[in-house]
Specification:
Oligomer: single chain
Helix content: 10-25%
Number of strands: 26
CATH architecture of the largest domain: 3-Layer(bba) Sandwich
Strand content: 25-35%
Largest sheet: 5 strands, parallel
CATH class of the largest domain: Alpha Beta
Radius of gyration: 23 Å
CATH superfamily of the largest domain: FAD/NAD(P)-binding domain
Shape: globular
Length: about 400
């Protein structure tokens, strides 16, 4: 039986786990196994700066190549783990080799959810999850004139903004009645919709797809149900969510629900196997059980938590979940979950051009902030995170009063 740590995956969570193990004094062997041929990189820029060709491959690397040698981390890229033998503490790779482990960290991430009814159209159909996906799409956008997008979540709306800024005509099709419906409330959705509409993006909301077909030139024609709309694009991007990569865990008999179930220390049902990042579901003390957060913050927090457990150190404090999206020159920042609120409060800011704009949306549950959505308002976001973390009581009137500095409500 091996005595070292093997991390399966090479994303944000995996990179942080390796770094945190060394920072916490773990001195054993650390091995990182990744399917892609790239060192761990940032995924958020893939739909933004990378598509707009303002960010390079080197710029989005999480750590420089020499870092892994410095922390004595054996990195094996282009390798896929195909099976876990839990009793023998053994991993089998797709090249026929095996790796022993003392403790295992699964950081297998998630994959883009596939759309079922697509025509054969090589080079026209795109998902965006990996660096290779982004590089391919970036090359296509360099010559595309019209782009269709299915899905108005984070990926869909960020790609729409990036393509629009490249001078491409964009149409977005979404089955839900508003954009980013799973991520933000109605008021924030309305602001995002207005921003895109003002720039000429066509938003077909509350619209289901009847069929997608390739015309004689190879372009893709998207037909909405009941003839509600149609659009012909040089390419189609599908952004309908992500599915956690749990096949390896399931095959090994590790307990899974929608994702790999982990406890407060990120330990799975096998005491020698941990799981972190987008592939997990975990209880949160503020928001309940079985939650799955797809975010950089969650990947980092869980990696630190697992590393602390492995190194025999106290667990770090549980953080408030947070997310962000950059679209055009705007930044949307969200802290917390608005799932159980009894009040939604708008904080309005004056604006020279239009008179006033929504600065932030606050969600209260029993006089406590459970979530905040900030629109180009980083101070609101930071104060909101603090209020959620400390469970401080506030009133709707205090939050709505733009004359009152939010710092007066902040909790140290």
């Amino acid at each position: 039986m091996g005595t070292g740590i093997v991390i399966v995956g090479a994303g944000q969570a995996a990179c942080q786990a390796a770094a945190s193990l060394r920072q916490l004094g773990y001195s054993g062997a650390v091995t990182l196994v990744g399917e892609e041929m790239y060192l761990p990189y940032q995924r958020p820029p893939l739909s933004k700066g990378f598509l707009q060709r303002t960010a390079t491959c080197d710029a989005i690397q999480l750590r420089p190549p020499g870092f892994y040698e410095t922390i004595r981390c054996d990195v094996r890229l282009g390798s896929r783990v195909v099976a876990i033998e839990r009793q023998q503490h053994l991993l089998h790779l797709d090249d026929g080799t095996s790796i022993e482990y003392g403790q295992l960290v699964l950081a297998t991430g998630a994959r883009a959810r596939r759309y079922a009814r697509l025509p054969h159209a090589p080079g026209r159909l795109h998902y965006l999850r990996t660096l290779e996906d982004a590089a391919t799409l970036s090359a296509v956008l360099a010559s595309a004139r019209r782009l269709a997008i299915i899905g108005a979540g984070y990926v869909g709306m960020e790609v729409a903004a990036s393509a629009n800024q490249l001078g491409i005509e964009v149409a977005v099709f979404e089955a839900a009645p508003r954009v980013m419906q799973r991520s933000v409330g109605a008021a924030t959705s309305n602001v995002i919709e207005a921003v895109h509409a003002q720039r000429g993006v066509r938003l077909h909301l509350d619209t289901s797809i009847d069929r997608i077909e390739a015309d004689r030139s190879g372009a893709l024609v998207i037909h909405a149900a009941n003839g509600a709309a149609s659009f012909t694009g040089d390419a189609l991007v599908i952004g309908i969510g992500a599915e956690p990569n749990i096949d390896l865990a399931t095959l090994a008999g590790i307990e899974c629900g929608r994702a790999i179930r982990v406890d407060a220390h990120c330990r799975t049902s096998d005491p020698d196997i941990f799981a972190i990042g987008d592939c997990t579901e975990q209880a949160h003390p503020l928001y309940g059980a079985g939650l799955r957060f797809e975010s950089v913050q969650n990947a980092i927090d869980q990696a630190k938590c697992a590393a602390a457990a492995i190194a025999g150190k106290p667990p770090p404090p549980v953080g408030v979940p947070w997310f962000w999206s950059d679209q055009y020159q705007h930044r949307i920042q969200v802290a917390g979950l608005a799932q159980d609120h009894d009040q939604a409060v708008l904080r309005i800011a004056p604006d020279r051009a239009v008179g006033s704009v929504i600065q932030s949306v606050w969600y209260l549950g029993k006089r406590r902030v459970v979530a905040v959505e900030a629109l180009d308002a980083p101070q609101d976001f930071m104060v909101g995170r603090a209020l959620i973390r400390h469970g401080a009581e506030v009133t709707a009137g205090q939050l709505a009063d733009s004359a009152m500095p939010l710092q007066a409500l902040a909790v140290n």
